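> forwarded from #structure-qc
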């Protein structure tokens, strides 16, 4: 599947229109002065496929944060140096392993790099989570650089946010002359601060993900039922008498549902087990029977209800003491399924009247499921169809709101956002330390070489040669992995 052509065309059209409008306003006789003044005051700038916002309004905040508890920040960002150097070695190892496995034709399904592209391998419904997570990770990454820079007496000129094509990001502008004159160790604290904060984001997101039941305990309950968070429109389960978002489901045809895992297991069990019957008095069956003429359907099962009764009645088969052969009756489905469930004729017993177990007359794939739910005065849902259709028509959550004013979707939002933070922030932490041009790893490697080799390799030219060889290797390694990942995504 490729990115929808319409969406791609709209994206290009938007950027082309924005760029042309920018050029027009900058060159117009009457508007250019006001427009350029507006751009200077707002910090906005437009270029091909890119929109930037640059500001100095956060400089005072960075100054306060960088001067808060200097000793703690020194330990904090020194820990970031340790992590950054370890992450650099880990990233080089993983990327090298990927290339080795590819060249040796080993299985490479678990890729180190997997390009994420909306409409290709990212559902469009998840694009908002993806873009917001990228922006949050980028901002906190750059805030780490800014605070560390202030801590090491390097001036912060400004901070900015940009959108490149579809992807958001952030950047911090540091005073280069200050940065170049401080010691390599202090440089490392600044260079590693971004990926260190990305790693901390991962730890925080893991904590939130696994402690979510405790954090949400005052507002949600778990372990008693599940709540519907999505119902597919115009499906077999929607409509006025169907399921609705916010319904609390407790069971499916007698199978207890206390979690989303139970929901899936009950639906799977309904596919394997025979459809249960319902206990009814033989006299009541014959009284309510509206069957006129029975016939065998193309599916191979017997149908005894005419078309005018198809919405409310269903054909049931049963046996009696007087006639051991199977008889059929067209009975109202709602009142029939209100009776006690049975698997065998012996499950139904009454000392005063003859009882029987009536079974729905269905084909091998169609099931009759009774979905019990707390939904005001609406009766339980009777689902007649293929059970996986029920599974794909709704989405459920373990977190049942304690009050109608509590949002149903909040736990899903927190869980999904946490998973994206773990995935994307972790990926940024590992990839940004690769010794490659234009990444943090480029400057981390340079400062590390100066820190460790300056006393033993006294020649600046020799250290520069070592740096150039390593940075070239890292760039080729990352480029090779990107090529492999794109090949796996589009060619295979």
């Amino acid at each position: 599947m490729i990115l929808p052509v319409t969406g791609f065309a709209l994206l290009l059209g938007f950027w082309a229109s924005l760029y042309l409008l920018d050029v027009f306003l900058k060159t117009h006789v009457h508007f250019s002065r006001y427009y350029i003044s507006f751009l200077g005051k707002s910090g906005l700038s437009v270029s091909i496929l890119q929109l930037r916002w640059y500001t100095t309004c956060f400089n005072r905040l960075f100054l306060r944060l960088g001067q808060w508890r200097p000793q703690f920040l020194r330990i904090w960002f020194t820990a970031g140096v340790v992590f950054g150097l370890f992450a650099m070695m880990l990233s080089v190892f993983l990327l090298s392993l990927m290339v080795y496995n590819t060249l040796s034709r080993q299985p490479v399904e678990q890729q180190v790099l997997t390009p994420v592209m909306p409409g290709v391998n990212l559902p469009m419904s998840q694009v908002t989570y993806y873009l917001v997570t990228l922006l949050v990770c980028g901002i906190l990454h750059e805030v780490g650089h800014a605070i560390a820079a202030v801590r090491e007496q390097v001036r912060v000129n400004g901070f900015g946010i940009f959108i490149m094509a579809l992807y958001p990001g952030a950047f911090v502008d540091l005073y280069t002359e200050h940065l170049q004159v401080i010691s390599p160790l202090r440089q490392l604290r600044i260079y590693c601060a971004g990926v260190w904060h990305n790693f901390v984001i991962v730890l925080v997101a893991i904590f939130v993900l696994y402690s979510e039941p405790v954090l949400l305990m005052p507002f949600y309950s778990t372990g008693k039922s599940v709540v519907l968070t999505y119902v597919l429109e115009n499906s077999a389960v929607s409509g006025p008498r169907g399921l609705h978002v916010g319904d609390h489901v407790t069971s499916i045809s007698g199978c207890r549902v206390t979690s989303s895992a139970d929901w899936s297991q009950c639906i799977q069990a309904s596919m394997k087990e025979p459809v249960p019957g319902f206990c009814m008095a033989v006299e009541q069956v014959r009284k309510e029977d509206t069957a006129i003429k029975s016939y065998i359907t193309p599916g191979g099962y017997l149908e005894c209800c005419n078309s005018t009764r198809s919405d409310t009645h269903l054909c049931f088969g049963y046996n009696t003491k007087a006639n051991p052969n199977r008889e059929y009756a067209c009975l109202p489905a709602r009142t029939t399924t209100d009776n006690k469930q049975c698997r065998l004729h012996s499950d139904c017993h009454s000392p005063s009247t003859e009882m029987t177990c009536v079974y729905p007359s269905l084909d091998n794939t169609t099931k009759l499921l009774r979905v019990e739910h707390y939904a005001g005065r609406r009766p339980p849902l009777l689902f007649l169809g293929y059970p996986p259709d029920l599974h794909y028509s709704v989405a459920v959550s373990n977190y049942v709101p304690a009050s109608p004013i509590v949002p149903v979707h909040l736990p899903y939002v927190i869980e999904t956002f946490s998973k994206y933070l773990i995935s994307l922030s972790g990926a940024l932490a590992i990839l940004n330390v690769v010794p490659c041009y234009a990444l943090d790893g480029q400057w981390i490697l340079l400062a590390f070489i100066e820190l460790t080799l300056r006393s033993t390799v006294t020649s600046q030219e020799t250290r520069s040669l070592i740096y150039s060889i390593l940075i070239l290797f890292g760039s080729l390694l990352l480029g090779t992995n990107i090529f492999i990942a794109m090949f796996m995504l589009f060619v295979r």
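QC bot note: The CA atoms of residues 105 and 450 lie 39 Å apart. The chain has a mean pLDDT of 88.
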